[in-house]
Design goal:
One of its GO terms (molecular function) is DNA-binding transcription factor activity. Helix content is 71%, strand content 4%. The protein has a 3-stranded antiparallel β-sheet with strand order 1-3-2. The longest helix is centred in the middle third of the chain and has 25 residues, at 88-112. It folds into 2 domains: 2-84 and 227-244, Arc Repressor Mutant, subunit A; 88-219, Four Helix Bundle (Hemerythrin (Met), subunit A), CATH 1.20.120.530. It has helices at residues 2-14, 21-34, 46-53, 57-69, 88-112, 115-133, 137-154, 158-178, 187-200, 203-219, 232-235, 237-244; strands at residues 43-44, 73-76, 80-83. The protein is globular and about 50 Å long. Helix 1 (2-14) crosses helix 12 (237-244) and helix 6 (115-133) packs antiparallel against helix 7. A hairpin with a 3-residue loop joins strand 2 (73-76) and strand 3 (80-83).
Length: 245
């Protein structure tokens, strides 16, 4: 266990140049939420996470606080942190906010997107397509979320980008909690045609496509499904295995 902890700690320090331990821990947890490996209402034990990542509980606490500001983690006084579990009413409010946000972002993206940004998004859609084709629903969902965050970057509006990041991750929680039927993806062609409209400068079509896309996401939800593991060691087994190797 000691060697394993040292290996994880080394990986956290060097994973991406310029990233702090806080950043890396935050990104691992954020990705686990986007990939639905952490289901709603999962208790996030500081002690367990500190052991998994071989960092101090102070670092874990800062990462959880950052996630709580994005409303994907709830910190309860004297009870610790847990992954947020939106109610049906909260889900409706999140989707309404997402709809308003996405339309504003799409309008600005049509006005401000560069060819380099559009090309980068197209590459992201290819990776998303590959993930779904390989049956990796979690990674596909995360890449889909990244696509929408990239659209916000095209908008050239920092507050919208910050709000979008929070809403994308909250939407992932809603999908994990309320999606009905099998995991299917309707967004791949929708993302491509949306990019086509943005690149063509066709604002009206881009807005219509975004509205339709969000409607498809919302139509797949019901009130009762959960299926992911809430064991932190299971969720982050990829971190442990990669560092053990």
């Amino acid at each position: 266990m000691g060697n394993l902890k040292n290996s994880v700690s080394k990986n956290i320090k060097t994973k991406v140049a310029g990233q702090t331990q806080d950043d890396v821990v935050y990104c691992h947890i954020f990705d686990a939420i986007l990939e639905q490996r952490l289901p709603p209402a999962t208790k996030l034990s500081e002690e367990a996470l500190a052991e998994i990542f071989s960092v101090s509980r102070t670092i874990i606490r800062r990462a959880l606080l950052r996630l709580s500001l994005e409303q994907v983690v709830v910190i309860r006084p004297n009870r610790g942190a847990m992954v947020a579990a939106p109610t049906v009413e909260e889900a409706k409010q999140i989707f309404k906010a997402r709809e308003v946000m996405e339309l504003a972002i799409t309008e600005l993206a049509v006005q401000n997107a560069t060819k380099a940004q559009i090309d980068e998004c197209r590459k992201l859609v290819v990776k998303e397509n590959e993930a779904f084709d390989q049956g990796d629903y979690g990674s596909g969902l995360r890449l889909s979320g990244e696509f929408h965050i990239k659209l916000a970057e095209m908008a050239e509006n920092a507050p919208l980008l910050a709000f979008q990041r929070s809403l994308v991750s909250q939407t992932s929680l809603l999908i994990a909690q309320y999606e009905t039927g099998s995991h299917s993806n309707c967004s791949l062609d929708e993302h491509t045609v949306l990019l086509d409209a943005i690149e063509a400068g066709d604002e009206e079509r881009a807005l219509d496509l975004m509205q339709e896309h969000l409607g498809h996401i919302r139509s797949k939800l019901n009130l009762d499904s959960t299926s992911a593991s809430n064991d932190l060691h299971v969720v982050f087994s990829n971190v442990l295995k990669s560092n053990k190797a």
